[in-house]
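Re-run with default settings, no changes from the original entry. Doing this only to confirm the output is reproducible before filing.
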Amino acid sequence: MLKHYFDTGRIRVDKSRHPELATYHDPCNYGRKSLRAFGQGYFEEPRDILSQCVEHWVEMYPNRVEQFCCGAGGGAWAMPYDKERIYYGRIKAEQIREAGAKLVVTPCHNCRDQIMKSLIKEYHLDIEVKYLWELVSESLIVEPWSEAEIASARQQQELQGKRLYFEPRY
C-alpha cells in the first residue's frame, strides 16, 4: 500500500533529508517466506521506496532471496536465546559493515530490534537503524490542502462510508 501512495502521487518526499549512505535489509518473512508461501516475495517494492527517500544507498551482498537472516527470525528475538541470536547475527553485522552504510532500513520489527539493540552493541557498528515507514515519515513533504481538496476528500469519505454503511463523524 505504501508503494501505491508513491506511485499515485498521493505522497511526496524530500530525499535530501537523508543524505547519509543507506542500505536495505531484506527480512526473511517479507522475502523468502512470502515467496515460498504465497509465490510473491517483496524485494523490489521497498527498494523503490528507499530510492525515493534517500540520496544514496548501496545493496548488501548477497541480497534479496540470498540475503542472510539477521538472527532474530523464528521467534528468536522474543525467546531467551540471546547468545544464539547474537552469534547468528554476526554474518549480518559483517554484511552491514562491508556495505559501509550509516543507515540501515528494514520494515520488520524483529530485524530492526535485532540490528539496533543487539548487533550494534555486540559488533560495534556505527549505524542508525530505521523502519521503512519511519524513513518515509521523516521524508514527507507536508503541504496544506486547499478548500477544494478538503471538500473533495470529504465527498470521497462519504461515498466510502455509504459503501461500508457508516456515517462520517466531522
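Residues 27 and 108 are 6 Å apart (CA to CA). The chain has a mean pLDDT of 87.
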